[in-house]
Amino acid sequence: MNKNKMIKTTISVVSLITVWGLVSKMGVVSSYILPAPVKVLNTLFKMVQTGEIFEDIHISYIRVLKGFFIATLAAFILAMIRIILPKWNDYYENVLQFLKNVPPLSLISLLILWFGIGETTKIGIIVLTAFFPIYLNTVKGFISCDKKLLEVGEIYGYSKVNSFFKIRLPYAMSDILVGMRIGLGYSWRAIISAEMIAASAGLGHMILFAQQMSRTDKVIVGILVIGVVGYITDRLFAFIIGKVLKGSEKNGWD
Amino acid sequence: MDGIKLVNVSKSYEVKNQQLKVLDGIDLNISANKMTIILGRSGCGKTTLLRLVSGIEEVEKGEVRGVRLKRKAYVFQEDRLMPWLDVKRNITFGLKKKQINHKKIDEIIEMVGLEKFCSAYPSQLSGGMKQRVSIARAFAYNPEFIMMDEPFSALDFFTREQMQKELIKIHQKTRCAILFVTHSIDEALILGDKIVILEKGRIKSCYEMNEKKQERDLLDQKFVALKKQIIDDLRII
């Protein structure tokens, strides 16, 4: 981010907090509904000092990473089979299309029945959420591969598998990474919802628990932390994409 | 090495429910060690002929003999470079890691005049430079048989002339078979051992030339007469 952009971002964030502060100072709404920014900040400091916030972040983060990893792997393998062995695809394509239209949260009751409220349920929800954007983008990337480039591989005697890894995969890389980036964002959304329904730790649980204890300040801290952690993860991912995709066209991800 | 033989090769495409015959009963010998030029107007089936010989497309009728076992390379009309690979990796695209002879690759890069652009990506090159990379890719493969589809048409006059000379040199060194498609009569006269004129999917005429390529002078009476004859062949529709 350059200096100019940084200043503009700071201005918008500061003015937002100022408006928030003014509204709570004037007593337009009760401090229970909207606590003052100072109070939220204090709560944040306390939670940082005791370390409880890091514990929740850590737990949610590990769940997201596990689920995201499994989803990426499954999406990649199924997309690859679809290209290399198109006939096998018939076995699972329609099942996937069906599952795509079922919101993962609607499955949570079943998952709890089957797996209890342990880690499996939460990771399962993330896998189901993150899988589809990754799978669909990966397939799109593989299928839209330029036929003319595939012909070059054919001329130089590339086998189907070889041409997949040397031509189709690099060609699809930008699509795959877009899918992964969307999938990662979805994972964050999904884990919070899942933790609100069935969990004894994690950011989602923290927020719900704070609400039940009438601690709106903690709720807001939770929301801010989710946003910041999600943002940092996304930036990191964008940075990696920039490194991987050197040489190809601009993608508007800087 | 034996040559390649086309026997009664035909091909048609379906366009708007109509069969469009592109090639009609082509019989052709592509001799090993020689440069065979296919000359014709645009749309006469030149590229289709190359695609059939290369095996990218299947022959509808007839057969192409002697091409399967050969190590072949193809220079396409467009550059067809991999955008994610730099120049050097694009040039060695056809080779396995173990087969890469760096000294030879550097020589080829020098021949096409891209020493300074070894690590550039295709998006950073001009159209002519990209085409030169694609020509280098074909030669780096050590082919026994090269198909070239108007490879020099994107190059400027001087680069084209230089590349033609280099092609003659390489051909004399490697003695590989070359099937070269062009619409430029001059290019055909400079490069060819045999010129085949294609017209509406049929072979119209065929000329053999035995003069040494370095000594050819297109202003020589013999070549002027030949050029006239070729123009006449192409003109009658």
Q: How would you sum up this structure, described in words?
A:
The complex is a heterodimer of chains A (254) and B (237). Chain A is an all-alpha fold and 254 residues long. Chain A has one domain (54-244): MetI-like (MetI-like fold). Chain A is 80% helix and 0% strand. Chain A is built from ten helices and no strands. Chain A is globular and about 75 Å long. The model of chain A has no long low-confidence stretch (mean pLDDT 88). Chain B is of the alpha/beta class. Chain B has two domains: 4-71 and 143-235, 3-Layer(aba) Sandwich (Rossmann fold), CATH 3.40.50.300; 83-142. In chain B, 33% of the residues lie in helices and 27% in strands. Chain B contains seven helices and nine strands; from the N terminus they run βββαββαααβαβαββα. Chain B has helices spanning 46-54, 87-91, 102-111, 127-140, 157-174, 185-191, 221-235, and strands spanning 4-15, 18-30, 35-39, 61-65, 72-75, 145-149, 177-182, 194-199, 202-208. In chain B, the strands form two sheets. Chain B has a six-stranded mixed beta sheet, with helices on both faces. Chain B has a three-stranded antiparallel beta sheet with strand order 2-1-4, covered by helices on one side. In chain B, helix 3 packs antiparallel against helix 4 (127-140). The N and C termini of chain B lie far apart (38 Å). The interface between A and B is medium-sized, with 17 and 19 residues.
Q: Taking strands numbered 1, 2, ... along the chain, how are they ordered across the largest sheet of chain B?
A: 5-6-7-3-8-9
Number of domains of chain B: 2
Helix/strand-derived class of chain B?
A: alpha/beta
Q: How much beta of chain B, percentage-wise?
A: 25-35%
CATH topology of the largest domain in chain B: Rossmann fold
Domain count of chain A: the total is 1
**Radius of gyration over C-alpha positions of chain B, nearest whole angstrom:** 18 Å
CATH fold-type name of chain A:
MetI-like fold
Low-confidence segments of chain B, given as residue ranges, are none
Q: What spatial form of chain A do the alpha-carbon principal axes imply?
A: globular
Question: From N to C, what is the helix and strand string of chain A?
Answer: HHHHHHHHHH
Protein name (chain B): ABC transporter ATP-binding protein
Keywords (chain B): ATP-binding, Nucleotide-binding
Organism (chain B): Sporanaerobium hydrogeniformans
Organism (chain A): Sporanaerobium hydrogeniformans
